[in-house]
Amino acid sequence: MAKTAIITGGSRGIGKALSLKLGELGYNVVINYRSPSSKEKSEAVAKELEEKYHVETLIVKADVSIYEECENLVKATIERFGDKIDVLVNNAGITNNCNWIDIKKEAYEKVIATNLMSFMHMSHLVLPYMVNHSDKDHQCVIVNTSSVGGMTGVINQADYCAAKSGVIGLSRALALEYAKKGIRVNVIAPGMIMTDMLRGVNQDELHALAATIPEGYIGDVEDIAGALEYILKAPYLTGQVISPNGGFVLQ
Ligand code: NAP
């Protein structure tokens, strides 16, 4: 029987590459999006998944920073695919780019709500289903997207770094708490990957930063999809941070 995976923010950027990887690995994919402009992108990803990998898809609009909308996302998943949720990929994320004196309270609260609280909401809602059908031979997996910002500091990204560090702590604790139940929780902490998130920042600063990457270039979404595949196929891996970053954190 096909397995079910939920991905938050699965219509574009890294999320799109992860959605397609899940399909390639044979999962039915629940693609979450939030912005009206991402509805068509979600439909295009779903079409590609169905045509290329012959898996089933479900598209669910939800702002995952809001607990009740996460409840709707999980409910819709169960109505469509049943209550055996095998994989949860928490990927949704936003950034501010502001120094800590000038940033508005509402702006940093939104970053924490989107980049950390949504991961807590989704794992809180999905784990009860995972514990019901996972064991050593049939593992369930949660994959959380952090960032090199969660491993180091980044100027003008204090809220983002706080959220992304929090994701690592959350993941390690949940990995310990549910290891005996056959549930693995791991983190992907990307370095700089070319998506809309990076296209939105000052390009001069970006190129200067890219020049400091030991491998010398900005990564591709496929680097992150490869990390997801590795995690899903690694039964002895839990509570770990996999960071495709071109050597960024070595300096
Ligand atoms: P992106 O292209 O800007 O995409 C962000 C995704 O998050 C979109 O699918 C967006 O959905 C979704 N999203 C944002 N807020 C949401 C909410 N409240 N509810 C549901 N979905 C929401 O960014 P990306 O580069 O692919 O980033 C994906 C993840 O990787 C993020 O967690 C990011 O922090 C992390 N990351 C990225 C980089 C990088 O260099 N690109 C580096 C390290 C970590 P809509 O389109 O529907 O708004």
Q: Topology of this protein?
A:
Elements: E1 4-7, H1 13-24, E2 28-33, H2 39-53, E3 57-61, H3 67-81, E4 87-90, H4 105-133, E5 140-145, H5 158-178, E6 183-188, H6 196-199, H7 203-210, H8 221-232, E7 241-242
Parallel strand pairs: 1-2, 1-4, 2-3, 4-5, 5-6, 6-7
Would you give an account of this structure?
This protein is of the alpha/beta class. It has one domain (about 5-240): NAD(P)-binding Rossmann-like Domain (Rossmann fold, 3-Layer(aba) Sandwich), CATH 3.40.50.720. It has helices at about 15-25, 40-55, 65-80, 105-135, 160-180, 195-200, 205-210, 220-230, and strands at about 5, 30-35, 55-60, 85-90, 140-145, 185-190, 240. Helix 1 (about 15-25) packs parallel to helix 2 (about 40-55) and helix 1 (about 15-25) packs across helix 8 (about 220-230). The structure holds NADP nicotinamide-adenine-dinucleotide phosphate (NAP). The site of NADP nicotinamide-adenine-dinucleotide phosphate has 29 residues, from helix 1, strand 2 and helix 6.
Which structural class fits the helix and strand makeup? alpha/beta
Helical content class: 40-55%
Number of DSSP E strands: 7
| SSE pattern, N- to C-terminal | EHEHEHEHEHEHHHE
Report how far the terminal alpha carbons are from each other. 46 Å
